[in-house]
Amino acid sequence: MTVRKSRQTRFKIIQAGDPRLKAKNKLIKDINSPKTKKLIKDLIATMYKAELIGIAASQIGENHMVFVTHPRKTKARKLGKIDKLRIYINPKITFSSKVQNLIYEGCGSVSDFGPVLRPKEVEVRAWDEKGQKFSLRSDGILSRVIQHEMDHLNGVEFIQIVSDYSKIMVKEHYMKKIRNSPLQKKNSIISKLKYKQL
Fold this sequence. Notes:
- The chain is α+β, with helices and mostly antiparallel strands.
- It has a single domain, classed as Peptide deformylase (Peptide Deformylase).
- Helix content is 22%, strand content 28%.
- It has helices spanning 34-49, 140-153, 171-177, 182-188, and strands spanning 54-56, 66-69, 86-96, 100-107, 110-119, 122-127, 133-138, 169-170, 193-197.
- Strand 4 (100-107) and strand 5 form a beta hairpin.
């Protein structure tokens, strides 16, 4: 899907405490409807405008089961291997590795950053914007952002599962201390990415 990286979008990212972040998200029944197409475009435009690498529909006040990802270099993250823009409609995680790793996470709906321990590798099944069902297995920052956005669709913000609350920090300190740290870089590397149409 080609979407202009618009500087304007009618949506703002809603913040922690807004009840829409906890509301139940509905399955999308018609992927080809104008409403669904517009929601996806709004999600992508908002993600780019806010310099995020992923965003879920609930974060723009739309309680539907869809999120988008695009791991790439932003002000908050310096990544080696990046991934392309992907859309996940009615997603479900079908595999989570027993091996876990720690990455500091941030969020457009939360002002702080904090360390979160999650499975290193996951597999997700979903439909794309063309109605093609697919599976995607990955590690690194792509695995991480998939899990983060799935949490949003389940009404969970990352601050609820931070590994050590004494290490939560504002963006300024994250940028100085964590962004370029060896562990953050190592655990963010995408070394496995397996996509399959179903």
